[in-house]
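Title: Prediction job returns without error message
Component: structure pipeline
Severity: low
Priority: P3
Assignee: unassigned

Description:
Job completed but the reporter wants confirmation the result is attached to the right record. Sequence as submitted:
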Amino acid sequence: MQLTYWKKFDKVFKHFSGKKIYEEILKLVDLLGEPYKKKSNKGRKFKITPKEYTAIIAFKISSRDNFRDTELDSELYVDEHIDHSTFGKNFFKIPYDYCACSRQYKNNNRQVQRYSISGKTTTSKRCLQTAHNDTKTS
């Protein structure tokens, strides 16, 4: 028996709603570990964890939203209103290696292992090789 149009629509909505996609990205970020840490105890505390900032930023950039739209949607994902400038500041704290490793982890679907190369923390063997090649060229 073939599914009706609305049953197909409901199935797609359950698996590909914005909240579900954010939760999947958050799972990947949890596997990769902390993207960055607060430098000192001075200053204001984070409203949400760096993992949550990274997941929201990755999701909203992939859907081509700007940080002002991210501010409007922040309450939908983490039940906190977060200013767009906060997302911009935290975006620049995410290391490039972290983003590259998450892309490679997603493509390879390998178990995450943590390595350290010259103070940089990277993940998975392929990412390790990429980071090693990058240090050779620079």
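Comment from assignee: result matches the submitted record. The radius of gyration is 18 Å.
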